[in-house]
């Protein structure tokens, strides 16, 4: 009965492609997360992820090689690759790992904005500058990426027309950050050295 099912068209053109697709989604999700973790300076977790990633990949590619005449397996393999990349990016976005630099340029006095940010335990630096239309104030802050939406909301609240730019920060030596708000597995991820000190 089992042998008959494994050799049936239903298994070859439906079940097997679905399994290959799911395997590719899993291994590409892990691959995307592994690369992102490496870019954040995490040392050991990417190695563990890579171990499971390559095993899943070997299982998927092995089935494709065993069914070279099955075009549906090729399609499932490619679709799983694309879907896994998107899923991995979505997971990383949900985790909101790392640090972000926010640079704000405004013409008005930023006192209320800087005071509000400092009252919420964000480290803020304010300096004078000159833009294309005259004197401006430049406000810099480095925040945890998970706090980005909150900080952008504060900027728009106090200075709706402010120009601001956002850049990823690889490492910092010191900093002032609000208390961690993440819970469960997200709190464990944020406990890793995402803001490791640069050499």
Write the layout of secondary structure elements.
Blueprint: H1 2-6, H2 9-39, H3 45-66, H4 71-95, E1 99-106, H5 111-119, E2 124-131, E3 134-144, H6 148-158, E4 163-169, H7 184-190
Helix pairs in contact: 2-3, 2-4, 5-6
Tally of individual helices: 7
Radius of gyration, in angstroms, nearest whole number = 24 Å
Q: Overall pLDDT, averaged?
A: 84
In total, the number of strands is 4
Query: Oligomer, anyone?
Result: single chain
Helix and strand sequence: HHHHEHEEHEH
Strand content: 15-25%
How is the main sheet built? 4 strands, antiparallel
Helix content: 55-70%
Shape call: elongated
- Please give the domain count: 2
Major beta sheet, strand line-up: 2-3-1-4
Distance between the termini: 63 Å
Low-confidence stretches: 182-186, 193-199
Q: Which structural category do the helix and sheet elements fall into?
A: alpha+beta
Can you put this structure into words, describing what you see?
The protein has 199 residues and is of the alpha+beta class. The chain folds into two domains: 94 residues; 92 residues, Alpha-Beta Plaits (2-Layer Sandwich). 55% of the residues lie in helices and 17% in strands. A four-stranded antiparallel sheet has the order 2-3-1-4, covered by helices on one side. The longest helix has 31 residues. The termini are far apart.
């Amino acid at each position: 009965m089992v042998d008959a099912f494994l050799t049936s068209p239903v298994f070859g053109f439906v079940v097997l492609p679905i399994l290959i697709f799911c395997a590719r989604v899993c291994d590409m999700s892990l691959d995307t997360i592994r690369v992102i973790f490496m870019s954040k300076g995490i040392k050991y977790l990417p190695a563990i992820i890579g171990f499971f990633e390559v095993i899943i990949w070997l299982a998927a590619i092995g089935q494709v090689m065993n069914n070279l005449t099955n075009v549906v397996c090729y399609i499932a393999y490619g679709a799983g690759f694309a879907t896994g990349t998107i899923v991995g990016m979505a997971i990383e976005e949900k985790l909101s790992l790392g640090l972000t630099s926010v640079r704000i340029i405004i013409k008005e006095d930023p006192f209320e904005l800087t005071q509000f940010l400092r009252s919420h335990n964000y480290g803020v630096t304010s300096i004078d500058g000159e833009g294309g239309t005259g004197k401006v104030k430049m406000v810099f802050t480095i925040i945890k990426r998970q706090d980005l939406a909150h900080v952008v909301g504060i900027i728009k609240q106090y200075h709706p027309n402010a120009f601001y730019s956002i850049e990823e920060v690889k490492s910092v030596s010191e900093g002032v950050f609000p208390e961690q708000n993440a819970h469960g597995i997200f709190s464990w991820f944020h406990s890793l050295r995402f803001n490791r000190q640069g050499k």
